[in-house]
Request: fold
Amino acid sequence: FFASSAINLHFFLGVFLHFITGADTIQSTYNSAMNNHELTVKVHSFMYRQCRSKGYATAVDVLMDIGVLQKDKYEDWRFGHIPYLERVCTINLSKLSTIRHQMRVYAQKAGLKPSFCYYKQWGAKKKGGQGRKPVIPLRFSKYGKPEIEKQYATHFVDAKRVAELRAKQDGDAGSTDNSGT
Reply:
């Protein structure tokens, strides 16, 4: 009885908050109610899917797949309109820490190779239209701690799957090459 009452109350509050404050609240209410077990299952599932489709998994893609980071907010961050990525995630810092931890756990169990990726701002302007574009690093975390920044910027690569995808791509490219006819 109490469990169903709590679920009904949570749903009612979500609908009520949605009515008062707008569309994003239901998603953030749902995300904040997600427990660590649900997060773990989602992280592992989305990492598996990313590795199967691309050969690697990234933190930002996992966050978008889970639904705690909207694509437009991610793009705003990449263009430098948002000071740090965690600011636009719809769950708290503790849950984000759980996601990063579970990514590392999955990567270790699956034998994925960590690969650091330097995230820089998109669309940086040249000074005076001359010379090279400035490289502006992006910040992921609220406090900018190097270890947390490194965790977000690390991609996990499935070397075997990358080789399979390349072989398939090379095979597809060879079969569409009509230069001999």
